[in-house]
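To whoever picks this up:

The nightly regression suite flagged Diacylglycerol kinase family protein as changed. Nothing in the input moved, so I suspect the structure step. Input below, exactly as stored in the fixture:
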Amino acid sequence: MRYLSAYFNVTVKTTTPEINGTDLAKQAVKASPDMIIACGGDGTVTEVAAAMVGTHIKLGIIPFGTANALSHVLCGTLSKVASLETICLNLIDGCEQRIDTATCNGELMLLLAGVGFEQQMIEKADREKKNTSGQLAYLKGLWEAVGQNEVHEFSVQLNDEAPFTIKTPSLTIANAAPVTTLLAQGKGVPNIMDGELDLTWLDPDRMQILNLAELAMLGMGDKNEDSESVEGNNGIFHRSAQRVTVDISQVGHYVIDGETREAKTLEVVVRPQSLSVIVPESIIN
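Regenerated output under the current build:
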């Protein structure tokens, strides 16, 4: 913390099995600091942010996890290669930005919820595999899930519209996702400041390797302006909404921001511009 202590009055708190990031952040919020910094992976960042939504306290991130997906969303590829010194300097000189958050079954969601491929990938990439292989553990888990290609039926309701039924091996509901999160790229990289959720699901009858390749192209900017339609983009389907309800009783479990949960229904609601974060000035400009 020597980089930060020259500019800030820094207090360091460490999580324990009994006290998580939300508990510590709630204590910090009571002191009305200018900034609360989460040092860890996406799970730790979400825990800390849960106590900060709706406040004007700025969230800073020092990414020390496996995927660091939110940091990638906010800071670009810089988050993958930057030194600790550079990250701290960005916290000192960076700009404040309001971003969307969401709730999934009442729990804070910064990134996405998923059933099918995304959920299976997370379940297969356990802590031991992540410690050994890092992000390759997720890739291996994804390939295993794609190879199985289990198709599920879901009833989906967007906002107050009539429900519709889909059959798919993969459904994601994203508030934000970096380009590396392929399964959420149904209309390119989701915008964390557009006040909407992005649903992406895949055609079960098309070769999934083709769907993944197409998602990669969409994430790199090859966007289809017609992909808002439920007709889909070849094997890729995309819709946007502020509130999404999904009957997942056929599966019974899902993943939210890299953590597995059990439920028969998903209810995801976006909360526009509800969290202040620090991003590099170059991102704003």
